[in-house]
Amino acid sequence: MPARIVLQQADITRALTRISHEILESNRGPDNLVILGIPTRGVVLADRIGGLLREISGTLVPVGALDVTLYRDDLGRNPTRAPSPTQVPPGGIDGKTVVLVDDVLYSGRTIRAALDALGSIGRPSIVRLATLIDRGHRELPIRPDFVGKNLPSSQSERINVHLQEIDGDEYVSIEESGS
Amino acid sequence: MRHLLSTRDLSRDQAIAILDVAEDMADVADREVKKLPTLRGKTVVNLFFEDSTRTRISFEAAAKRLSADVINFSAKGSSVSKGESLKDTAQTLAAIGADAVVIRHGSSGAPLVLANAGWIEAAIVNAGDGTHEHPTQALLDAFTIRRRLHGPASRGHGLDGVTVTIVGDILHSRVARSNVWLLTTLGASVTLVAPATLLPIGVDEWPVAVLFDLDEALARQADVVMMLRIQSERMHAAFFPNAREYSRQWGLDDGRLDRLGPDSIVMHPGPMNRGLEISAGAADSPQSTVLEQVANGVSVRMAVLYLLLSGERTLS
Amino acid sequence: MTETILVRGATLADGTRTDILVRAGVIAELGKAIFASADRLIDADGLIALPGLVDLHTHLREPGFEQSETVLTGSRAAAIGGFTAVHAMANTSPVADTAGVVEQVQALGVAAGYVTVRPIGAVTVGLEGRQLAEIGAMANSRARVRVFSDDGKCVSDALLMRRALEYVTTFGGVVAQHAQEPRLTEGAQMNEGTLSGELGLAGWPAVAEESIIARDVLLAQHVGARLHICHLSTAGSVDVVRWAKARGIAVTAEVTPHHLLLTEQLASGYDSRYKVNPPLRRDEDVHAVRAGLADGTIDIVATDHAPHPVEAKDCEWEAAAFGMVGLESALSVVQASVVDTGLLDWSDVARVFSRAPAAIGRLDGYDRGIAVGSPAEFTLYDASASRVFDTSRLRGKGLNSPYLETTLPGRVVATIHDGYATVLDGELVEADAVARFAAAAGAREAGVRNG
């Protein structure tokens, strides 16, 4: 079965804009916010959300990257992955409201690892989670605060997120995995 | 990567990948919590047939920062010194369930034998074998040079165009060998400086330049001058007449230090013989990276252990 | 109980096709379509009949190192390799430096019966290089020792070497020198060159061998003695021996099968099966020793069969013992390295592997090869065979062969020693059967001598 496009570029932009509004709404403004993307595509999404927050609120919101590779619990089940840099914004995260950003939320294990990773770089007062796609099949008690699109899927299906900055084109598609 | 046995068989991409992961590991050292859960449940054995407190504690710190369990097996004064073979030791460690064995051995090639003989499935890390190689030392040296040159923007870089002069007992130095292969793989040009007695036969076929005269070499203003430890027992085997003459001809003294370019860096793998191959002034100068090398050693060894132990184990 | 054996349709080294009739321990008749009754008929169609191979350099390890090899097991390894005589090196425990030890080794050889075992006597007491061993007593013993060697160690003291050369001459013997300058090879692990430098293994320079050979040929010339050079391994050594022979010096030299085929490159994986003394050398050296063997500079091939127990090789390179087993594979390796490459023909093989080593060792019966009236010592070899050499081909105790899992040409089909078969259809004849034949042959020969 060929890949089926579920979000076009305009849909993605619209979803991120809505998420940005929701973040500001729930935080009652831009103060004290830190946006941390989870590599690889979460970092791009975090950058875009940072830009949107600035556009909407007129305030510069610190954006960074949080690598979770070294905190994963499934390292022995997959080929070795190279970690990506973690970039903590200059103000740090202590006492801040950190919004973690990822492209697809699935089992929740990445987010569990992210929470551990976060704990080793500081102590935020609140941690929230934004994801472009929530495809279900959670294995841990983790739930997103901001969702671009809920996309019910079967576990045999694969979700592809393409972003301009990384892939040169932009869409979200779903397909039967080739295995 | 299944084992780390030498730098000779590392490709440029592999070497840069290790150094890049080491950058991530170095970041951890700056954090509030310096420990990662990455290798929880893994067992790393430090199997040391030669004393080397520095290398052992560096590997131990690296493994512990990654939450691995560490067993130190000092073969001196153990059953090994009573005639137990490498094979029996290896099979014992396999039975204990070692996931990685960090081996320091006086015999060149012992880590390779351990990796290939089928006695143990663990990942093998060469922590110095005879006069063959000491790959993690070379990796930490390359890492140190790269950080001095590129600072926080080091990731992805090789050492293209960097000039490195290595001075001392090349013949018996595993550090020199590992550095020659690694640094040249990363694009650096390497010059070796030593008396002819301390250069191996066939060195003319290595990818390096060779000089006998240290002053001539220093006049070329290398980016890096790496001094090797000279062992005093060498003079008894007629490699050179005495320490005084060696120091005068091939030691980095204060006068020679002054003639280095201001941006040149001075490296030494340690432990140093101050006053013999390096003066106290040179060792403690701002150009010296000796302590950075020690700190970077932990990051590089974390990277190596991570890369060897984190992926799926494919049984051979 | 002696056998009459009729071999049908063998091809001699010179290409002649012939039947061979063996009766009462000697070759009774040669020719086409021999009509005779025989206890045993061997079809040798397509097989080469070579005179029995004589090894001038074998480590049988007994007495003292029976976990590595015994005279019996080493004799079996020799027979399956086509040998009918071996010279047992002196580095046993106790060292073969007295008449008692050499007579014991010889007696064990006779009892085993697979090959003639000729003990080599030590040059110096305990191989220690300080004091001459009882060379006269060994020469005059029942073992009639004619080859003296401290092999494994070099007789490095120039004065002692001079005296040994002179003294051995008194008994018609020869000193077989293990040419290795000890100071230049302290801790040495492999050939010194680019590769040893890269591997970090202490180098064994060619000059350590060549300088001793140069010194010893000059000593031999000076005192008018015979000198034999063991396991020559470098191009420079070939040059020195060639120079010495051109000057008329009575020097002979041997090369091992492994130095004819293998190079130092094999050490690069630190697999200690390739650790040997002298070490494997460069490709240039391999070609030089082949050329030296082809032009007669090197007189003979000798195996330096050096069995070790598994644990002596199942370890890191520096801890491993030096040496390789070689009897079982020798003829195949010679075929691969110098026959199939066109450097030697089968007559040359008969010379370098039978007649010449027998002459150096003063071993009777091999001077005419396969000829009517000569003792029946020969082997039937299938040069067209090709096989993966594995441990199932080894018959000694040592498994330390460098050829395991490699393909080698040729196969020994039958070996006839002293008129009886030790190998038939490519397999050893049972030990008790061989011992019975040997005892009968011994009784017959005693009868001949007494009558």
Automatic annotation (TrEMBL), chain A:
Listed EC numbers: 2.4.2.9
GO molecular function terms noted in the UniProt entry: uracil phosphoribosyltransferase activity
InterPro entries assigned to the protein according to its UniProt record, in alphabetical order: PRTase-like (IPR029057), PRTase_dom (IPR000836), PyrR (IPR023050), PyrR_bifunctional (IPR050137)
CDD domains per record: PRTases_typeI (cd06223)
Gene Ontology annotations of biological process type: regulation of DNA-templated transcription
Source taxon at top rank: Bacteria
Keywords: Glycosyltransferase, Transcription, Transcription regulation, Transferase
Residue stretches making up the Phosphoribosyltransferase domain: 8-155
Catalytic activity field: UMP + diphosphate = 5-phospho-alpha-D-ribose 1-diphosphate + uracil
PRPP-binding (motif): residue ranges: 98-110
Pfam family, one: Pribosyltran
NCBIfam families registered for this protein in UniProt: PRK05205.1-3, PRK05205.1-5
Protein purpose: Regulates the transcription of the pyrimidine nucleotide (pyr) operon in response to exogenous pyrimidines. Also displays a weak uracil phosphoribosyltransferase activity which is not physiologically significant.
Entry similarity comment: Belongs to the purine/pyrimidine phosphoribosyltransferase family. PyrR subfamily.
Descriptive protein name: Bifunctional protein PyrR
Originating organism: Lacisediminihabitans profunda
Gene name for this UniProt entry: pyrR
From TrEMBL, chain B:
Keywords, alphabetical: Pyrimidine biosynthesis, Transferase
Positions that bind carbamoyl phosphate: R54, T55, R104, H134, Q137, G270, P271
Pathway note: Pyrimidine metabolism; UMP biosynthesis via de novo pathway; (S)-dihydroorotate from bicarbonate: step 2/3
Residues spanning the signal sequence: none
Catalyses which reaction(s): carbamoyl phosphate + L-aspartate = N-carbamoyl-L-aspartate + phosphate + H(+)
Catalytic activity, EC: 2.1.3.2
GO biological process, one term: 'de novo' UMP biosynthetic process
Binding site for L-aspartate: K82, R174, R229
A GO term, aspect molecular function: amino acid binding
Record's GO cellular component terms: cytosol
Ranges for domain Aspartate/ornithine carbamoyltransferase carbamoyl-P binding: 2-146
Alphabetized InterPro entries for the sequence: Asp/Orn_carbamoyltranf_P-bd (IPR006132), Asp/Orn_carbamoylTrfase (IPR006130), Asp/Orn_carbamoylTrfase_sf (IPR036901), Asp_carbamoyltransf (IPR002082), Asp_carbamoyltransf_Asp/Orn-bd (IPR006131)
Family under the similarity heading: Belongs to the aspartate/ornithine carbamoyltransferase superfamily. ATCase family.
Self-association and partners: Heterododecamer (2C3:3R2) of six catalytic PyrB chains organized as two trimers (C3), and six regulatory PyrI chains organized as three dimers (R2).
Protein name: Aspartate carbamoyltransferase
Gene: pyrB
Automatic annotation (TrEMBL), chain C:
Keyword Metal-binding: yes
Known cofactor(s): Zn(2+)
Protein name: Dihydroorotase
Binding site for substrate: H59, L60, R61, N91, N277, H308, F322, G323
UniProt keyword Hydrolase, yes or no: yes
Gene Ontology biological process terms in this record: 'de novo' UMP biosynthetic process; purine nucleobase catabolic process
Keyword annotations: Hydrolase, Metal-binding, Pyrimidine biosynthesis, Zinc
Gene Ontology cellular-component annotations: cytoplasm
NCBIfam families assigned: PRK09357.1-1, pyrC_multi
PANTHER family xrefs: ALLANTOINASE
Family label: Belongs to the metallo-dependent hydrolases superfamily. DHOase family. Class I DHOase subfamily.
Binding locations of Zn(2+) 2: D151, H178, H231
Pathway: Pyrimidine metabolism; UMP biosynthesis via de novo pathway; (S)-dihydroorotate from bicarbonate: step 3/3
Entries under SUPFAM superfamilies matching the protein: Composite domain of metallo-dependent hydrolases, Metallo-dependent hydrolases
InterPro entries given in the database record: DHOase (IPR004722), DHOase/Allantoinase_Hydrolase (IPR050138), DHOase_cat (IPR024403), Dihydroorotase_CS (IPR002195), Metal-dep_hydrolase_composite (IPR011059), Metal_Hydrolase (IPR032466)
Cofactor binding annotation: Binds 2 Zn(2+) ions per subunit.
PROSITE patterns in the cross-refs: DIHYDROOROTASE_2
EC number, as in UniProt: 3.5.2.3
GO molecular function: allantoinase activity; dihydroorotase activity; zinc ion binding
The reaction(s) this protein catalyses: (S)-dihydroorotate + H2O = N-carbamoyl-L-aspartate + H(+)
Class of enzymatic activity (EC top level): hydrolase
Residues where Zn(2+) 1 binds: H57, H59, D151, D304
